[in-house]
Each structure stands twice: as C-alpha cells, then as structure tokens.
Amino acid sequence: MGAGTEPDGSSRSDEEWERFLRESAAGAADAPKEPSARAREVTARLRAEPGRGQEGWRNHSPARPRRRTGWYAAGLAAALVLAAVGLAPERTLDLLTGGDARPSAAETARPTEAPPTEAAQRPTAAEPFRGSPAAHWASGAAGITVPRARAVGWMSAAEVERALGRSRDFLVMSGLDRGVLRGERPEKAIALINPHQKDVQDLLRTAFRTPSEKQDPLRLFSRFQPSRTRLVGDVVKTRGRLSYREGERGALQVTADVTFVYPVARADAPGDDEIVRTIVRRELVLNWDDPDKVITEPGTFSIVSYAYFRTNGGCDARTGYLVPPFGTDQRADDDGPEVDPYDRSTPVDRGEPAADGCRKASRS
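^ that's the sequence the OP posted. Answer follows.
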C-alpha cells in the first residue's frame, strides 16, 4: 500500500507523498507570514489607544451573534399562559382580570346570606351574565342539585331516585325548554302532573287560553312572547336544589327551590343592544303519592303548593307571558318593595304575587 490515500480511496505515489512532506515543512504558499515592520508598528499603536486592550491583528475575535432572548422569553410566557387557560380557565381569568370567575359550588342547603355584589358591568351579547352573580352559576339543569336517594315511605331507594329525577325533569321542561320559553304549551311538563288533581287541572285548562290574575301559567311555567322578546344566547343560568322527606300517607314529598336567570332582548328591534335579565325564583312542593292511598297515575305527582316571584318580568299585565321592561318600560317595575333576586337565604314569599304590586330588583 502507498504512504497515503485520497478521500476516494485511491493511493498516493511515494513521490507525491515525499513532495507533500517537504512542502509542509517549508510552509505552504498561502500560510500566514510573519508581519512586516510596518504591521508591527500599527499593532503597537493600536494597543496603546485607550479601550483597545490587547487586541492585535492576530488575536482579534469577532463578536458573537447576540441571542434573541427577548423573543424566546416572550414565547415561553405565551406558552405558559395558554397552558394555564387550558388547565384552569376560570382561575386564569381571575388573575388576568382581577375578578373572581370561579364557578359557585353546588347548592346543597339554604345559604346563610346573599351572594356578594359584583362590579357594575353592562351585559353584552357575548357575555349576557356579566356583572351578575349568575355569571358563576351553572347552566341549565346542571344548576339544580339532586340529593342522594334513600328509601322513604312506600318507595324504595331506587324509586326515590327515579322520582327525584322526574321532579328535576319537570323543572327543566317548565323553566328551561326552549319551546316553552318561546311561548309553546308545556305538554311534556303537564304530562307529569297527576291528571286527577282537580284544582291544578282547572288552572291548566284555562291559564294558557285566558290568563288572569287567578289563573296565570307563570305560576308554574316560564314563557316569553316571541313577537316581543327573544332569548340572548343558548344559556339560562340556574341555582337551586331538591330536598325530600316523608309526607302525609307515606308519600314522598319533594321540595324544589330554584332561581332561573334569563338574558333577553327586544325581538322587534334587532339593532338594539339592550339586554335585560329576567329573574324567576320558584318553590314547588310535590307529592309522589302511594297509589294504594291516593288516586293518581303511575309516574305522576300532585302539586301540594307553589310560590314564586319575578323581577324584570312585568307584574301588572296578566298576559300569560313574562314581560321584560325595555327602555322607557323600566317604570313598570319601579313600584312595590325592592328585592334582591339573587338572595336565596330566605324562603320564597308565599303571598299572592299581585298582593304587594310589582317587585323592583335591587340588582340584576
């Protein structure tokens, strides 16, 4: 084998290898040469200048490129914010806005006080619950707490669980169903009421056809007149709970206490951005009776009592619909006692809603 090889694997001849060694010892033509006297003089003068240090023509080092640490840090911060929003959006919003956007814990018992007052903020189409305690409430049926079932009276634990579920279904069908809210007759909700309960059936027969002070469908159902009022968005906020005990003749007696918050706007003025929150609180007592002791139909309940109040929903006009006060109509709800519609620390007043006139909301 020869003394050297080319990168492609071919061999160098002995003569070429010997010439290469001689040239290397003598110095290649393009190798750096010793500086001239003139170059040494310039170098000495540069070294003597203030701030030049020991830089010379051979020991100069080019400046290193600056790392873009500012952009890197900004990108890292943005990534951390996005991760935090994904993992805990409510808490992240708290930190960014200085508010408290965390959802309220489910209500399992009557609260001892009203929720704190929110900073005054005008509701918008994108945030119709802004500036309201309802912003922290659950949506729809999720805001109605159902307790753990146990055997009561004539019912087993499984039967009690089924009755509680149907009781909540009635609240959903009567206060959250989109068709019912648009003024349709609540057929599914009515089907859960004992058809043999004469007083309630009399109410249902006439209330939707000829509503009046005594026979008002709003006592049990939330309805808006579609030609006048439209719901804003797809969410109704709720807060409340079911409780139960053994009633008369061994009946399962279920009490429902739920507040509904409806953001609405004028249907006949699409360019108007005014949003009103109509708030309805209902308390119902329902009996799931033993069919051996009370005339009833399977899967239905009897209504023992009902009480409710509404704010920003009109009081004087008995139309069978909630009538939110828009613009100059605000005067319609200015009479009567003031009430905090979000205060659930006291029971619903069981007096006739018309007895003390319209109720004015202290906040909405």
